[in-house]
Amino acid sequence: MNKDLAGPTAPVTGAADLAGRTALITGATAGIGRATALALAGRGARVIVHGRDRERAEATLRRIEEAGGSARFEPADLTRPAEVTALAERAGDVDILVNNAGVFHFAHTADTDQTTFDTHVEVNLRAPYLLVQALAPAMAKRGHGAIVNVSSGAATTPGHGTGVYGATKAALESLTRTWAAEYGPAGVRVNAVAAGPTRTEGTAAFGDAFEAAGRSVALGRLADAGEIAAAVAFLASPSASYVNGTTLSAVGGLPAHG
Ligand SMILES: NC(=O)c1ccc[n+]([C@@H]2O[C@H](COP(=O)([O-])OP(=O)(O)OC[C@H]3O[C@@H](n4cnc5c(N)ncnc54)[C@H](OP(=O)(O)O)[C@@H]3O)[C@@H](O)[C@H]2O)c1
């Protein structure tokens, strides 16, 4: 275990339980994806950092390499299906797939234009679908694999302006159950983590309203990206060897009403 990679809130397993495994993490150039890349590399996985922004990717790679981990960058724009399938080909034999990349442009239904609708479906739903389609059959052939989809509390709880976003995440949770049933018999586990409001590059612009979202969960605060990564890493690891088809709630708990 590389302690330097773990970060203050990453899992401390005391073992390199992902040694010899290759993990593809989409959207690992920032936020929850970067924290997940650090957590999985800290447990010994060879990490494929996906994203678009080369500078951000290099920052992730540097942190992994400085701590003695192994990683490489594979860029792809997930709105383009040909780039998604090319990414899967370049990734090769993947033991762990984390479908983390996502967009969240919040607007009420009447104010949601078609491009916004389409981008959510393309990045949050179609890209994970294409990656599972391309990579899960080979995992099944090898007899092992773990897929973790990063969902959101918005999949099940309505929020202001989260309609399309939440719908894509609800669909991803549904696919999680379907894929678990399809690939489970071959030894491939598929699970999801529903994240609560988390401090990341993507949410930095939300400001005070976001801090209020943190205060509204039972724990009364925002999550650190490493705390969500810890849940993802658990599901990706042998510690979750009999966990399949579930969505692990990491939303900070529901507050009491009344
Ligand atoms: N933060 C939260 O409060 C929260 C809560 C619940 C769920 N989630 C989910 O957690 C995941 C990560 O969220 P985050 O807050 O960490 O996001 P973030 O800081 O905005 O980072 C998003 C990542 O996704 C990549 N990405 C976005 N659009 C892409 C595209 N078209 N093609 C390729 N890569 C693309 C970005 O890559 P580049 O920058 O390199 O382009 C970046 O690495 C998302 O699925 C999100 O829905 C987040």
Short description:
The protein has 258 residues and is an alpha/beta fold. The chain contains eight helices and nine strands. The protein has helices spanning 3-6, 31-42, 54-66, 81-91, 114-142, 163-183, 208-215, 225-236, and strands at residues 22-25, 46-51, 70-75, 96-99, 145-152, 188-195, 198-199, 223-224, 247-250.
Q: How many DSSP-defined strands? A: 9
Largest sheet, in brief, is:
7 strands, parallel
Which stretches of 5+ consecutive residues score pLDDT under 50? 1-13
Helix and strand sequence: HEHEHEHEHEHEEHEHE
CATH superfamily, called what? NAD(P)-binding Rossmann-like Domain
Outline type? globular
Looking at the structure, the CATH topology is: Rossmann fold
Mean pLDDT: 94
The domain count comes to 1
Give the helix level as a range of percent.
40-55%
Query: End-to-end distance, in Å?
Result: 46 Å
Q: Can you list the strand order of the major beta sheet?
A: 3-2-1-4-5-6-9
Hey, roughly how much beta strand do the residues contain? 15-25%
Known CATH architecture: 3-Layer(aba) Sandwich
The tally of helices reads: 8
Radius of gyration over all CA atoms, rounded: 17 Å
What does this molecule look like?
The chain is of the alpha/beta class and 258 residues long. The protein has one domain (3-250): NAD(P)-binding Rossmann-like Domain (Rossmann fold, 3-Layer(aba) Sandwich). Helix content is 43%, strand content 17%. Strand 7, helix 7 (208-215) and strand 8 form a beta-alpha-beta unit. The N and C termini lie far apart (46 Å). Mean pLDDT is 94; it is low at 1-13. The structure holds NADP nicotinamide-adenine-dinucleotide phosphate. Residues 27, 29-33, 51-53, 56, 77-79, 100-104, 123, 150, 152, 195, 197-198, 200-203 line the site of NADP nicotinamide-adenine-dinucleotide phosphate (NAP).
